[in-house]
Amino acid sequence: xTKLEQTLQQIKPLDEEVxxxxxxxxxxxxxxxxxxGMLENIAKQIAGITGSVVPELPKKxxxxxxxxxxxxxxxVAPFPQEVTPQMVLNFVNGGAAMSVLAxxxxxxxxxxxxxxxxxxPDVPNIIKRKVAYGTKNxxxxxxxxxxxxxxxxxxGIDIAEMVIREGAGIIAIGEMGIGNTSPSSAIIATYSNLxxxxxxxxxxxxxxxxxxxxxxxxxxxxxxxKPNPKNPLDVLSKVGGFEIAGLTGVxxxxxxxxxxxxxxxxxxxxxxVIAKEMSPLxxxxxxxxxxxxxxxxxxxxDFLGIKPILMMNMRLGEGTGAALAMNVxxxxxxxxxxxxxxSEAGVSNKL
Length: 351
Fold this sequence. Notes:
Layout: H1 3-10, H2 16-28, H3 37-50, E1 60-67, H4 83-92, H5 97-104, E2 108-115, E3 126-128, H6 146-165, E4 170-176, H7 181-192, H8 196-199, H9 208-225, H10 232-239, H11 242-256, E5 261-263, H12 266-278, E6 286-288, H13 295-304, H14 320-338, H15 342-345
Parallel strand pairs: 1-2, 1-4, 2-3, 4-5, 5-6
């Protein structure tokens, strides 16, 4: 049995009994029933994930996967591919937005080279698990082989298991890869059955002319490859990316190990769609951090049945939205643990 198959077998439903007890406590807190809305929903979901009626605040971590994309040869991105390795170094040197927000949330940031198209220097804090030097141009054929896609998912599983062994109780996911909104758009178009123009966005800021080029390249990739939505690994290999595959593995490993995973934006959302298609139960372990400005992100969240915690008009990626959501998640758990019940506070709850 492969690592992926073992992981999929380990994913179980949430603990309904624990969730009922958590709901009873939430309803007995000194407030009108349900009045804290999503804060209560989050606390109850994390209780069901962890199997603890009143979970402790978890140790936080963020996993950022980096990979390059052959589709950039079609002119779909405003920035050159050299930015990917430059940004990887910026992450580990502490200067990127995600670096700042991870520090702000006291979350350890793990940066993984899973498919950067060049060799990165031997510097501390880059985890080198390169499957290949970027994907091939999906407008001309499959982005990667079926075996490479499987390997990349299993790298994500390995990394998540390592992070969990090191004590992480909640994991945010993020990514870096010039051109990665194109494969994400292709994945969402495949599963939503919507025209590419309805799901594609401007990514890092393409102009109108480049947007036309981007839409045409993605449409060509879908026509050339004909990804089979009934086989998520087929979709991933034909029109995906190494970082998307790696994040898919992280999500599945979190679900298998009963650890909440915070989904970031559009690219992380594409990984979440693949993870759901591999294991529908995996959705129960996902928390949606925010609603991205990318038009396809709402389609992703609706497809997953997940409501975003924040609406911040963000479209950076990297895991930034997921990092910001950590503060709200902490608040939800503190409400559950630290608020008094009516009996504890000596407050009447009689109508």
